[in-house]
Design goal:
Elements (H helix, E strand, L loop, with lengths): L18 H11 L2 E5 L1 H4 L1 E5 L2 H9 L3 E2 L24 H12 L2 H6 L1 H15 L4 E3 H6 L1 H11 L6 H11 L6 H20 L5 H11 L6 H15 L1 H15 L2 H9 L4 H11 L9 E3 L3 E3 L2 E3 L4 E4 L1 H4 L35 H18 L4 E2 L21 E3 L2
Parallel strand pairs: 2-8
Antiparallel strand pairs: 1-2, 3-5, 4-10, 5-8, 6-7, 9-10
Helix pairs in contact: 4-11, 6-8, 6-17, 9-10, 10-12, 13-15, 13-17
The structure holds protoporphyrin IX containing FE (HEM).
Length: 391
């Protein structure tokens, strides 16, 4: 059995800027190995191959909730979907599936279209612009505000708070304010339900006999915000980056906009916005790629790495919008925790990138791609800025 001190310890947190290359080395030389993954993930067993990642996502011996891992002997847990196992996960996820419907997503379309047009109007006169700040960030922020039912008057402050909760601002005071704000919002929605997802969740729970506590509603409001914000920012940014790096394919998409959904799917594979998901826990010894991870250990699955695995995807480092296998990417996860926001994220990205490339036929990257700084995170993968020339 491989032990923690078998020489595979690796300071992964120092490899963020070069994450794709480091993950390729891990897949080839040490597909399952113990790493130091920084403040966000702690230490754990990094799992990098497609088959191993996929199997962990459906293995009942693997838990998200630390309270279900006997070796950890802890009562401390978290009430958000991502950190729950059945039956609590099943109960809350059913409510989310019931309320976060295709219709609820479709209702957001006109607002997203309008905002995308306004943002592009605002930058149109500039020769050079940072697309992350000016375009990719504001779109998911509006969407989350609408979903959570944040009143118009609170939205400026809400943007500071949501940035704090996303870890962009390392400011404990602001994080506390953000929680306090969401706590008040959740209580308001329960008392005076509106036309938003938080209210719908609360009402649906009441209909089923009060099966969602205020703490659970709050925890999942925070999750919706955190899970739906940066991920979408980076899907928009990574899509623009990939298309600008493949001018012939960009020309094809411009000539036939029906190709855009396939291009977005290929970006979810080729440059996944999620690198390493939050930890899972082994409750029994689990053998992956001939390495046995002991019970009670954290498992860190790299979605980004799995999606570049050559034993699963032909020529995985090639961006190809005609690739038929793209839809088998793990960009939105797999199994019971599969992203419920996937249709919304696809729609936001489709609207944003579609409008951008239609409006600016001479769009170009203003710097060389190697000089872009990536977000300092093992959770998210994407550039902090994306300077482009519009004309
Ligand atoms: C879960 C990716 C957008 C809400 C997940 C997971 C992934 C993911 C990989 C599963 C994690 C795991 O099993 O370890 C993404 C990407 C997005 C995106 C790449 C954008 C491009 C959104 C949006 C929302 C959202 C827009 C909601 C507004 C959630 C929630 C979960 C989740 C609530 C937890 C589900 C559960 O545990 O049952 N997402 N997501 N995501 N996502 Fe997304």
């Amino acid at each position: 059995m491989a032990s923690i001190s078998n020489g595979t310890d690796f300071p992964l947190d120092r490899a963020v800027q070069d994450a794709q290359r480091v993950m390729a080395q891990r897949r080839a030389g040490c597909p399952v190995g113990h790493v130091h993954a920084g403040a966000s993930h702690g230490e754990g067993w990094l799992v990098t191959r497609y088959d191993d990642v996929m199997s962990l996502m459906t293995d009942p011996r693997v838990k998200r909730d630390q309270r279900n891992v006997p070796e950890l002997n802890t009562e401390e847990g978290h009430d958000s979907l991502l950190y729950l196992d059945p039956p609590d996960h099943t109960r809350i996820r059913r409510l989310v599936n019931k309320t976060f419907t295709p219709r609820a997503v479709e209702l957001l379309r006109p607002k997203i279209e309008q905002l995308a047009d306004e943002l592009l109007d605002r930058v149109a006169a500039q020769s050079e612009v940072d697309l992350v700040a000016a375009f990719a960030f504001p779109i998911p922020l509006l969407v989350i505000s609408e979903l959570l039912g944040v009143p118009e008057d609170d939205r400026d402050e809400f943007s500071t708070w949501s940035e704090a909760l996303n870890g962009i601002q390392d400011d404990p005071g602001t994080v506390r304010q953000a929680y306090a704000y969401l706590q008040k919002l959740v209580a308001d929605k329960r008392a005076h339900p509106g036309d938003d997802l938080l209210s719908a969740l609360s009402l649906a729970a009441a209909e089923e006999g009060g099966s969602l506590s205020e703490e659970e509603l709050l925890a999942n409001a925070v999750l919706l915000l955190v899970a739906g914000y940066d991920t979408t920012v980076f899907l928009i940014a990574n899509t623009v980056l990939a298309l600008l790096g493949a001018p012939e394919q960009l020309a094809e998409v411009r000539a036939d906009p029906d190709l855009l959904p396939a291009a977005i799917e290929e970006v979810l594979r080729y440059d996944s916005p999620v690198n390493i998901s939050s930890p899972r826990w082994a409750t029994e010894p689990i053998t992956l790629s001939d390495i046995t991870v002991p019970a009670g250990q954290p498992l860190l699955v790299s979605i980004m790495s799995a999606n570049r695995d050559a034993s699963y995807f032909d020529e995985p480092d090639r961006f190809d919008i005609h690739r038929h296998q793209s839809t088998r990417h793990l960009g939105f996860g797999h199994g019971i925790h599969y992203c419920p926001g996937a249709p919304l994220a696809r729609m936001e990205t489709h609207i944003a990138v579609g409008k951008l490339i239609e409006r600016f036929p001479d769009l170009q990257l203003a710097v060389s791609p190697e000089t872009l700084t990536m977000r300092d995170s093992l959770l998210m993968h994407g550039p902090t800025t994306l300077p482009v020339r519009l004309s």
